[in-house]
């Protein structure tokens, strides 16, 4: 492992006035792991260094709240660095398998340390001779696109308690766990209402039904998206009207939507694709000008923020999936709808519950699409760490941009000026020799995915729809060249460095073959 993959420095928000300095550390957004232990180091003897150990599994975050000290770090390979800690607005994240020593600790120094695991002496490597020759972690030879076991293992205590709580409660469908998560998700998104449903596809369909969308109506959708977006429109009998995305953001925009508007257009169904938020203000303004609804497909955009407004509060309503692979994933299928409109929220809730508000009293024909209590409890347990996971995804994206940015023949996603607008659900590159690159990475043990291998307009399901694939050259190019590299809240920077090396090797070998 290289040194730059084993630590990172994070700048904390710092507010100073005549009364002193305030440095808030939001554990859920700034510390990239659940904090299981917190301790202080204070009143140290300057002549006596501390530390002299590495951890096998524990991640740590360290802040020098007053005074100063020198933090010395060393890898097993002997690479070293020294960091002066003297600013409470600076936090150092230390990964496992990194030797650390603290020297020149001033008498007034107070160090705050946050750890990802409870104290366990077996986790410590205290003998420097033991640390050097035999690395705790074997060399990286495999990197999964996403390891769901590892994703959920980080929340094992919370998830275990949540499951036990639901089982003991006797409420398995609906009930207090669902209500609690609905309130939490609405508050997080900045919406007035949230309604739990069975999955993301149902969420979109239920909103369209609540709005009375049906045969004869048109719904504008992205040409480049997962087919579920289109299927929701077909489920209510309306017609999809695909529009091309902006080639830089992969998202549709007001400029691409406007030419597709007709007198039959009732809804714009925009997707926050790959985790990049739509440029929502022009779209919302366009919809309001024409008296049509703006529905967000927020399945890939959990937590993205533009102009102070999160995904989930940008349109007239938003549909979410909490499929296990999403940035906020349940333990199975789950979804939700957010909206500021109480009538939409009420209609969605009834439509998902057989058209009923009171048991056995059905005002209209509905279906069965409800959020199970066990999934709601799991989502409530994981929600507090969503922003921290997002920050880690952003650090991975920055690493990719830095390491792969100058490779000819490789097109990276354009990183937005406002980092908050992208939550990096996927990291999608484009390469003309996608098959060759994917095979090369597979040989190196790296799993990649294609989002998506077949565009909706090329699917057999829409063969009789009268669409002309030649009308969508941008989407066709994206689908032909796109490849998703590993990214998640639990990938280590060492794993990402391994991926970067493998990608770079492919293009180096390709140039050698061409010369």
Automatic annotation (TrEMBL):
InterPro entries: DegT/StrS_aminotransferase, PyrdxlP-dep_Trfase, PyrdxlP-dep_Trfase_major, PyrdxlP-dep_Trfase_small, QdtA_cupin_dom, RmlC-like_jellyroll, RmlC_Cupin_sf. Residues 7-132 form the Sugar 3,4-ketoisomerase QdtA cupin domain. One of its GO terms (molecular function) is pyridoxal phosphate binding. Keywords: Pyridoxal phosphate. SUPFAM superfamilies: PLP-dependent transferases, RmlC-like cupins. One of its GO terms (biological process) is polysaccharide biosynthetic process. It holds the Pfam family DegT_DnrJ_EryC1. Belongs to the DegT/DnrJ/EryC1 family. This is dTDP-4-amino-4,6-dideoxygalactose transaminase. It comes from Devosia subaequoris. The lineage of its organism: Bacteria, Pseudomonadati, Pseudomonadota, Alphaproteobacteria, Hyphomicrobiales.
């Amino acid at each position: 492992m290289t040194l730059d993959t084993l630590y990172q420095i994070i700048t904390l928000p710092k507010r100073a006035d005549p009364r002193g300095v305030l440095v808030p550390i939001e554990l859920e957004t700034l510390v990239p792991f659940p904090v299981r232990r917190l301790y202080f180091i204070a009143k140290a003897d300057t002549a006596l260094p501390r530390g002299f150990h590495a951890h096998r599994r524990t991640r740590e975050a360290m802040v020098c709240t007053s005074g100063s000290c020198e933090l010395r770090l060393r890898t097993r390979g002997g690479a070293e660095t020294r960091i002066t800690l003297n600013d409470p607005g600076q936090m150092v994240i230390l990964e496992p398998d990194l030797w650390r020593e603290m020297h020149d600790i001033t008498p007034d120094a107070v160090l705050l340390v946050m750890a990802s695991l409870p104290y366990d002496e077996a986790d410590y490597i205290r003998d420097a001779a033991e640390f050097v020759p035999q690395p705790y972690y074997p060399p990286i030879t495999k990197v999964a696109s996403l390891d769901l076991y590892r994703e959920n293992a980080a929340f094992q205590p919370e998830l275990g308690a949540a499951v036990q709580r639901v089982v003991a409660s006797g409420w398995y469908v609906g009930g207090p766990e669902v209500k609690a998560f609905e309130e939490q998700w609405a508050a997080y998104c900045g919406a007035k209402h949230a309604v739990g449903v069975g999955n993301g596809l149902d969420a979109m369909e239920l909103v369209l039904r609540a709005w009375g969308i049906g045969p004869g109506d048109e719904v504008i959708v992205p040409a480049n998206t997962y087919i579920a977006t289109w299927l929701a429109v077909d489920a209510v009998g309306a017609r999809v009207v695909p529009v091309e995305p902006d080639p830089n953001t992969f998202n549709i925009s007001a400029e691409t939507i406007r030419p597709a508007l007709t007198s039959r257009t009732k809804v714009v169904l925009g997707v926050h694709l790959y985790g990049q938020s739509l440029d929502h203000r022009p779209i919302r303004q366009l919809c309001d000008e024409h008296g049509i609804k703006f529905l967000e497909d927020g399945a890939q955009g959990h937590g993205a923020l533009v102009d102070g407004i999160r995904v989930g509060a940008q349109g007239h309503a938003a549909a979410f999936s909490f499929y296990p692979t999403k940035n906020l994933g349940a333990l199975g299928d789950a979804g939700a709808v957010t909206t500021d409109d109480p009538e939409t929220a009420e209609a969605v809730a009834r439509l998902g519950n057989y058209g009923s508000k009171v048991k056995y009293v059905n005002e209209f024909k509905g279906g069965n699409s409800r959020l199970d209590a066990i999934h709601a409890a799991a989502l409530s347990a994981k929600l507090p760490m969503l922003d921290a996971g997002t920050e880690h995804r952003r650090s991975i994206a920055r690493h990719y941009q830095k390491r792969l940015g100058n490779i000819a023949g490789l097109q990276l996603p354009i990183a937005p000026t406002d980092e908050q607008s992208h939550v990096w659900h996927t990291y999608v590159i484009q390469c003309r020799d996608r098959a060759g690159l994917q095979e090369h990475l597979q040989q190196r043990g790296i799993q990649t995915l294609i989002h998506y291998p077949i565009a909706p307009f090329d699917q057999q399901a829409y063969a009789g729809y009268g669409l002309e694939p030649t009308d969508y050259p941008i989407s066709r190019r994206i689908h032909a060249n796109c490849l998703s590299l590993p990214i998640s809240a639990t990938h280590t920077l060492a794993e990402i460095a391994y991926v970067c090396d493998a990608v770079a090797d492919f293009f180096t070998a390709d140039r050698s073959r061409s010369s």
